[in-house]
Amino acid sequence: MGRGKIEIKKIENPTNRQVTYSKRRSGIMKKARELTVLCDAEVSIIMFSNTGKFSDYCSPSTDTKTMFDRYQRVTGINLWSAQQRMGEDLDGMDIKELRGLEQNLDEALKVVRHRKEMKEEHGGVCGYVEDIDDGGQTDPMYSCRVRPNQPNLQAIRSYASHHDLRLA
Amino acid sequence: MGRGKIEIKKIENPTNRQVTYSKRRSGIMKKARELTVLCDAEVSIIMFSNTGKFSDYCSPSTDTKTMFDRYQRVTGINLWSAQQRMGEDLDGMDIKELRGLEQNLDEALKVVRHRKEMKEEHGGVCGYVEDIDDGGQTDPMYSCRVRPNQPNLQAIRSYASHHDLRLA
DNA sequence: AGCTATTGATAAAA
DNA sequence: TTTTATCAATAGCT
């Protein structure tokens, strides 16, 4: 939909790519807003440009985390019902299937236990801070990355110290 | 873009709403695919119709969980840089700010500790299963919901037992 | 960032 | 669903 048809393949010219990204990004966001209103739907969009620029949309009636949680639930349901649709009865497949799930559970437990140990080693605190290149997402200076849900006093102290900022 | 212009407000006729949802959904998904290829971007979309029908898209180079994790990180960065942009220097705000963060950290720790205790009480296993109404998403019968990342042998046994399915 | 010629998406109808 | 008349998005320029 422009002065000429284009084929859908990566735009090699970085400037054109950036301009197209910007225009189409707002196009998609607008479509998402319209779908939300017209059809009373819930939509969550997360996107990153190839330079790491972040954009998102979420319908006003919900939030991104809720949508992701719901996604995980539904994905679980689909896995389950896919198994049902495979036409095998539970009797038949559970011997093998349960062994697989048991293994997965073991794996998950190991991860959880490892994290718990890490946590205990560090006095229950897992925050950290580091300088990152965020591809122009934030101001052209250092960015501080703190793990979500784990704001960390020590991380902030470390950050401040690293940047020669005096804390009370 | 049709035989007539429409205003962006909820479509009251359920049939029209459904048809419009279906068409616009595929429109957005197509746009997302194109943006992915044209601009070498990463896009994740999760959506639910007002009847609970689930659809999603994710760029091939990544997956929905990775995108959500990245979203959480970037959201953290934005909170941080928003504070920076407030024009207050760290020296000035840290006395109050750190107290607030310390409180948040305390809260988070309480939650984590509570979960850990719950886990220990139940022998390290947190899966569960329940019958749900999933709005026509799956077959018109019982659905099994298992908490993501916590597949649970016991939950499956319980489900099977509840439905008179014999397990080996 | 704005401006159009074009292509693309889709509302209404079949 | 499929078709088609229209409206909307956007590619190439400035």
Biggest sheet overview of chain A = 2 strands, antiparallel
Secondary-structure element order of chain A, N to C = HEEHHH
Q: Give the number of DSSP strands of chain A.
A: 2
Strand arrangement within the widest β-sheet of chain A reads: 1-2
Shape assignment of chain A: elongated
Helix tally of chain A?
4
Distance between the termini of chain A: 58 Å
Strand content range of chain A: 5-15%
Tell me, rounded to a whole number, the average pLDDT of chain A.
Answer: 65
Low-confidence stretches of chain A: 79-153, 163-168
Alpha-beta content class of chain A: mainly alpha
Instruction: Tell me roughly what share of residues is in helical segments of chain A.
Output: 40-55%
* Biggest interface, CB < 8 A: A-B, 91 and 90 residues
Description:
Chains A, B: InterPro entries: MADS-box/MEF2_TF, MEF2-like_N, TF_Kbox, TF_MADSbox, TF_MADSbox_sf. Chains A, B: Residues 1-61 form the MADS-box domain. Chains A, B: It is found in: Nucleus. The structure is a homodimer of 168-residue chains. Chain A contains 4 helices and 2 strands, in the order H-E-E-H-H-H. Chain A is mainly alpha-helical. Chain A has a two-stranded antiparallel sheet. In chain A, a hairpin with a 5-residue loop joins strand 1 and strand 2. The longest helix of chain A is centred in the middle third of the chain and has 32 residues, at 90-121. Chain A starts with 13 loop residues before the first helix and ends in a 6-residue tail after the last helix. Chains A and B meet through helix 1, strand 1, helix 2, helix 3 and helix 4 of A and helix 1, strand 1, helix 2, helix 3 and helix 4 of B. Strand 1 of chain A pairs antiparallel with strand 1 (42-48) of chain B, so a sheet runs across the interface. The structure holds a DNA duplex (14 and 14 nucleotides).
